[in-house]
Amino acid sequence: MITAGIDSGSLTTKGVILDGGQKIIASDIRLTGGGSKETGQNVWREILEQAEVSEKDVTYVMSTGYGRSNFEFADKNITEISCHAAGIHFLFPEVETILDIGGQDCKAIRVDRLGQAEDFVMNDKCAAGTGRFLEVIARALDVRLEDLGEISQHSDTEVRISSMCTVFAETEVISLVADNTSVPDIVRGVHRTVADRAVTLLRKVGITEPAAMSGGVAHNTGVVHELERQLSLKLNIPENPQLVGAIGAAVLARKIAEKR
Amino acid sequence: MSHLTDRITDLHRNRFALLKEKSRPKIGWISIYTPEEILYAAGLIPYRITGETRTDTSKAGGYMHRNICSYVLSCLEEALDGEHDFCAGVLMVNACDGRRRLYDVWRYFLKTPFVHLVDLPKSSDSAAKIYYVQEFRHLINTLEREFRVRISDDALGEAIALCNETRTLLQRLYALRKQENPPISGSEAINIVKSGMTGLKKAFNRELSELLTLLREIPHRAKNGNRHRVLICGSYFDQTEISEIIEQTGAVIVCEDISNGVKYFEGQVRTDGDPVEALGEYYMEKATCARMVDSEKRFDHLWALVQEYGVQSVIYLSLKFCDTNMLDFPYIRQRLSEKGVPVLFLEPERTGTNIGQISTRIEAFMETRVNMF
Question: Could you report the predicted ipTM of this complex, rounded to two decimals?
Answer without folding.
Answer: 0.85
